[in-house]
Amino acid sequence: MLSHDGRLIVVFNGEIYNHLELKKRFEARGLLYQTRSDTETILHTYATYCNECVHELDGMFAFVLYDRERRMLFGARDRFGKKPLYPTGLPFGDLAFAFASELKSLRKCQDIQARLHLSPQALAG
């Protein structure tokens, strides 16, 4: 979904349980909604709180948002990982990035090589 001003782009999987409560709060501040979707609530929450937006969201979710103005990619998932988020880089330089809520989806991308990275600290723990 694209924000009404074109600044933010979000890809979202899940459900924001407190969407209606947040919507009322934002509308009271004069923000207009184009849809009835909880996805739009993520856009308004990020626009208001930036990276701290996840502290306002209650639900099961994973999303990646691109902020054109700040030239920043921001990804988050719910605290319990109900909707997981698996990011990975691609061999095309700094601008290539892939993500999915299931590993099998990333395996469909032919440019991603499956590798297991073991941390010596994790193995020792």
Could you walk me through the main structural features you see in this protein, from its secondary elements to its overall organization?
The protein has one domain (8-124): Aminohydrolase, N-terminal nucleophile (Ntn) domain (Glutamine Phosphoribosylpyrophosphate, subunit 1, domain 1, 4-Layer Sandwich). Helix content is 26%, strand content 26%. The protein is built from 4 helices and 5 strands. It has helices at residues 19-28, 38-49, 103-107, 120-124; strands at residues 8-16, 59-67, 72-77, 86-89, 97-100. The chain has a 3-stranded antiparallel β-sheet with strand order 1-2-3, covered by helices on one side. It has a two-stranded antiparallel ribbon with strand order 4-5. The model has no long low-confidence stretch (mean pLDDT 85).
Binned, the helix content reads 25-40%
Q: What is the N-to-C order of secondary-structure elements (H for helix, E for strand)?
A: EHHEEEEHH
Number of strands: 5
Could you say what the CATH architecture is? 4-Layer Sandwich
Shape: globular
Rg: 17 Å
How far apart the termini lie comes to 42 Å
CATH fourth-tier homologous superfamily: Aminohydrolase, N-terminal nucleophile (Ntn) domain
Q: Give me the CATH fold name.
A: Glutamine Phosphoribosylpyrophosphate, subunit 1, domain 1
Number of separate domains:
1
**Text of the CATH class:** Alpha Beta
Rounded average pLDDT:
85
Binned strand content: 25-35%
Q: List low-confidence stretches.
A: none
State the strand order across the main sheet. 1-2-3
> Main beta sheet: strand number and arrangement?
3 strands, antiparallel
Given the helix and strand composition, which structural class is it? alpha+beta
- Alpha plus pi helix count: 4
